[in-house]
Amino acid sequence: MLTQLLSSKPKxxxxxxxxxxxxxxxxxxELHHDTAMRGPLLLKTVKQLRVIDFLxxxxxxxxxxxxxxxxxxxxxxxxxxxxxxxxxPIDLLAHKIAKV
Length: 100
Fold this sequence. Notes:
Helices cover 56% and strands 14% of the residues. It is α+β, with helices and mostly antiparallel strands.
């Protein structure tokens, strides 16, 4: 499971973003803007994270929103690693709202 999580740079970008904001759910459009990943690569990476149960999906107004699964087996360890590294990505939506 750990090798599946750490197998690529795009996957680590997404994992970092989801762990930095565990209470927030992201649409594919937001993930595209926050990570600068291309559409097909983003879809493939999100699908891989869903297969290993790292992400949960909710649907609102025919749009899918992805959020980290807090019941994921390695969730506590990944959160503690993120806090040690202290590399929290910028949430662009929250940043723009703060400006307003």
